[in-house]
C-alpha cells in the first residue's frame, strides 16, 4: 500500500511539471502583457518557460515586448506565434517569417503578422506590401527604448 501511495505522489508531481504549450481559450483568456481578451486567432502568441508556465498574448508584439522586458532573463522552452494562413495554429516563433504591413492590422496596431515559411511571407508581401523580418530582426524592429 505504501508503494502505491508513493507511486501516486510521484506520478502526480511529474504530471504537474508538464512543459508544453497550453490551449488558448479565445474570447476568455486575457493577454499577459496588455490584459486585453484574446480573440484574434491570426495574431495570438504564447511563451512557455522551461518550468512549464505558459503566458498567452493577444498579439505577437505583446509577446515580443514581454520577452524584451519582463522575461529578458527567463529561459523559455517555447516561443509560439499564430500562423496568419492557419488561424489558431501556433508555430515556432524563432523560425517564423514576419510581415509588417499597414494592410494587415494586428490587435495592438503594429501591423505584425507571422508565417510558417519565408515563402508564405513573401507571397503575403506581394499581396499586402510591407517589410519582412526574421525572429531576431522583428525583436530589433520592436525594441523597447528605456
UniProtKB/TrEMBL annotation:
- Annotated signal peptide: 1-21
Q: Does the keyword DNA damage apply?
A: no
**UniProt key word Signal:** yes
Domain of life, per UniProt, equals Bacteria
Annotated SUPFAM superfamilies: NosL/MerB-like (SSF160387)
Q: Which UniProt keywords apply?
A: Signal
Q: Which PANTHER family match?
A: HTH-TYPE TRANSCRIPTIONAL REPRESSOR YCNK (PTHR41247)
Q: What is this protein called?
A: Nitrous oxide reductase accessory protein NosL
Amino acid at each position: 500500500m505504501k508503494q502505491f501511495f508513493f507511486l501516486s505522489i510521484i506520478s502526480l508531481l511529474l504530471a504537474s511539471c508538464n512543459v508544453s504549450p497550453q490551449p488558448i481559450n479565445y474570447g476568455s483568456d486575457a493577454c499577459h502583457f496588455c490584459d486585453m481578451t484574446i480573440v484574434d486567432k491570426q495574431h495570438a502568441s504564447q511563451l512557455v518557460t522551461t518550468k512549464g508556465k505558459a503566458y498567452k498574448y493577444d498579439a505577437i508584439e505583446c509577446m515580443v515586448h514581454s520577452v524584451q522586458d519582463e522575461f529578458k532573463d527567463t529561459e523559455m522552452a517555447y516561443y509560439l506565434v499564430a500562423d496568419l494562413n492557419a488561424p489558431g495554429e501556433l508555430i515556432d516563433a524563432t523560425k517564423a517569417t514576419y510581415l509588417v504591413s499597414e494592410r494587415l492590422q494586428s490587435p495592438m496596431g503594429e501591423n505584425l503578422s507571422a508565417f510558417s515559411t519565408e515563402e508564405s511571407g513573401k507571397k503575403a508581401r506581394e499581396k499586402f506590401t510591407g517589410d519582412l523580418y526574421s525572429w531576431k530582426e522583428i525583436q530589433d524592429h520592436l525594441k523597447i527604448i528605456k
